[in-house]
Amino acid sequence: MMTDAEIESRLAALGLSLPAAAAPVAAYVPVVVSGGLAHVSGQLPFIDGALVKGRLGEDVSLEQGAAAAQACALMILAQLKVALGSLARVERVVKLGAFVASTGDFTDQPKVANGASELMAAVFGEAGKHARSAVGVPVLPLGAAVEVDAIVAICPV
């Protein structure tokens, strides 16, 4: 099991740090813990405090989309840290669901989702490798380019 210091060190080596956990924008909670799993609600991409908006295949590049997915993954980690008290409780990232706002002819949703997937593997190693969905949608809340949710196995307190 990794420590919070090891996780923060891995993030720092990538030039990243955890953002402040975002408040919900509607009637839901960010994380529900049940049966040894943490279910993390869909997180939106904030980079330098600004929401990444737009659609892939229209006004957001593949590189910008992957960076947005990575920002969603960072927010997932921030939400988990608040809910669990420590990221050291993460036993395994079980599944990510990536929703990509995209045009009808854009088909690289999996490459966009890699931004989130690769971050989880970089932070948690083998325990960060997960099952995944990558789905194209016409629009996301607040005009976001990407939204990512997660299911994470956790160690008991």
Task: Characterize the structure shown.
This protein is an alpha+beta fold. It has one domain: 60s Ribosomal Protein L30, Chain: A, CATH 3.30.1330. Helices cover 31% and strands 27% of the residues. The chain is built from three helices and seven strands. A hairpin with a 2-residue loop joins β1 and β2 (37-43). The longest helix is centred in the middle third of the chain and has 23 residues, at 62-84. The chain starts with a helix and ends with a strand.
Secondary structure layout plus pairing:
Blueprint (H helix, E strand, L loop, with lengths): L3 H10 L17 E4 L2 E7 L2 E2 L2 E2 L10 H23 L5 E12 L7 H16 L6 E7 L8 E9 L3
Parallel strand pairs: 5-6
Antiparallel strand pairs: 1-2, 2-7, 3-4, 5-7
Descriptive terms for the model:
157 residues; alpha+beta; 60s Ribosomal Protein L30, Chain: A; 5-stranded mixed β-sheet; two-stranded antiparallel ribbon; 27% strand
Offer a quick outline of the entry.
With about 160 residues, this protein is α+β, with helices and mostly antiparallel strands. The chain has helices at about 5-15, 60-85, 110-125, and strands at about 30-35, 35-45, 45, 50, 90-100, 130-135, 145-155.
